[in-house]
Specification:
- This protein is mainly α.
- Helices cover 59% and strands 9% of the residues.
- The protein is built from 10 helices and 3 strands, in the order E-E-E-H-H-H-H-H-H-H-H-H-H.
- The chain has a 3-stranded antiparallel sheet with strand order 1-2-3.
- The chain starts with a strand and ends in a 7-residue tail after the last helix.
Amino acid sequence: MPVITAITVQEKNKERCNVFIDGEFFAGVSMETVLKFRLKPKMEIEPDKLAEVLAQSERSQAIAKAADYCAKSLKTKKQVKEYLLSKGYSEETVWYCIDKLKEYAYIDDKEYSRRFMESTAKTQGKRLMAYKLMMKGVKKEDVEEAYSLAEIDEEENAKNLAAKYLRNKEITKENVYKAYKYLVGKGFDFETAKNAVSDFGEQD
């Protein structure tokens, strides 16, 4: 049976240890894993147990990296998944981390969507914001619920954007129609865009 011959604290990261099996380097694992499995020199350890130790260490490291990635701002589940996969973690470890981070509220697609929409609603309509969020992996139903919770006055935002677009432009039928198309391109629905430019004149 394999025997742990040494456990040394890493010089560059005091929260991780190097574990040696039968005199050879086996793996770097977290201090938390060493303590959890009560690993120590001269300890015999079965191969299945070694695999479990590695899995636990990988999970701990992945959670720490993901939590750090999410620390500055909320991320979607898809963003966290892609980030961890890019770091070389297994699918099993990635999904374990995602479940844990959701428990800790580090991942919340609805809250992410609400904040995103409130911060961009002055320059984009619901349709464009929803598209961008779904490209980030947010489910349509989560986008809809988040929009209903967000504090957004889309009619007012569209009017302000139309006024800004037409500022310093001659108010002609052609320019008003261009403003209308501009709003539609920004993701506002046709009726909202039409109402937003109505104060500047009719357009076909």
